[in-house]
Each structure stands twice: as structure tokens, then as C-alpha cells.
Amino acid sequence: MDHRAFYLQRMAARWTGALGGGMLAGCAAVGQLDQLPEGQYRAIQTNEATLRQALPPGRPLYARQQGDTLFFRADSLSPAQAKWPSLPAFYRLRPGHHVVVAARRFDLDVFTIPFKIRPSRGGVPLQLNTNFNAALYLGRRLDFYHLTSHQLLGGRRQPVVRTTGLGYGLFTGLGSSLITPDFTRQQAVTEYEGFVVHAGAAAIYDAHIFNLGLAIGADHLLGPDGRSWIYQHKPWFGVLFGLDLN
Q1: I want to staple 230 with a disulfide (CB 3.0 to 4.6 A). Which of 94, 122, 125, 153 is the partner?
Q2: 3-class DSSP state of 61
Q3: Residue 147 belongs to what domain range?
Q4: Does the pLDDT of residue 243 top 90, yes or no?
Q5: How confident is the model at residue 77 (pLDDT cuts 50, 70, 90)?
Q6: Which residues contact 3 (CB under 8 A, 6 or more apart)?
Q7: pTM of the model
């Protein structure tokens, strides 16, 4: 990696850290954990002078938390990263200081789709559908963890871990849609709830307690009216929503 590419990587990591830190500040009470999950991370940001040199943005590390103490182990470094300062073996969280790390992983979730917005088509105006829909989602995500501590009475410190995540991926699932003669170019003989299979792509925001996503997808209506349904394989926009039960 040349110096220019390394510089661009550092700048991208700084912008990612700023975005993650801002998101965490806005959802402090929502995505709170008892403890940082042990595992592989990338350093994002810290305001602690001792750690700032040892944890430049993007540095890979292995971290675990025990009480108000973080234990670190350096992961493999590229030649351009080999000159980074040695990583401290441990760091005790102090009030007024914070450490932000991030982890990437695959994400598998089950979501509901509370509504779909269908653009105007075939003389039918913009539609808002609230029929039941469910989706299985598979994608990649980036989780941010903001670690700090609170000073309690008696001098005891309480560690605080807040988390939020962003992701993107694909989904597929089952649902229903109202079928009428107007929606099928007068081919349907009555109104009924049709069975649809849907698929698409989504961007996900995860606040640990709940997951929310913006989706774009298309439906396939099963049955003989599918060939004349004006929304068959046409794009819709909607929202994915799920609760984190883990």
C-alpha cells in the first residue's frame, strides 16, 4: 500500500469514526449493553491521550472487557501499519474519556414490513398498503461500540457500553396484497387477498433493542391473476421493522 492509499484509508476511517460517534451520541439510552462482546474490532476514536497514539483509526485489535478495564491484543498489521506504537495490554476506563471501536459481521434477521408504498400505475393513484408481510434478511453490518464509565458515589466506577449498527443486504419473504378488478385490468372477478412472494434490498439501522430499515422491493403475485396484476414485478418502497430478542 503506497502513502497516498494509506492516507485515504486513514481519512475514511476518521470520517467513519465521526459518523459512528455522532450516531452513538444520539441513541445513548437505546443501545446500551452490560459488557463489550469479546472479539475482533477496528479502532475508531478515543479522547484519551495515552491511547490516541496507540489506537489510530482503522487499527485492528482483539478486545475484551472485565469490569471497567479493557484488555487489548494487537491483530496482524500490514507493512504500512507496522510502525504504529505498541498497543497497551490493558486500559482502565476513566470518567470523561471514551473509546470507540467497530466490528463487521454478517446479519441474519426476520423482519415485518408494516407498509409498502406503490407508485401510481395503470391509472391507479399512489397506494399505501398495510397488509401483513414478513421477510428474511441477510446482509453485512458495521457495529459501533462506545465505551466510557460513570463515577458513582463512594468513588466506584460503572462502565457504560453503548452500541448502534448500520447494515445493508437482501431480503425475501411472504405477504398478501388486496386484489381487485381495477388492479388486474378487470381480469379478477372479485376482491380478495392475494398471496405474494417479495424480494429486494434494504439498508438497516440497528439500535440493539429494535431494527429499522428502508427497503425497495418487488412482488410476485401467485395465481392466475398474476399475469394481469398491474404491480407484478414492479418496484415498491417500504420499511422493515424487527425486535432484537437475543
Answers
A1: 122
A2: strand
A3: 106-243
A4: no
A5: low
A6: none
A7: 0.76
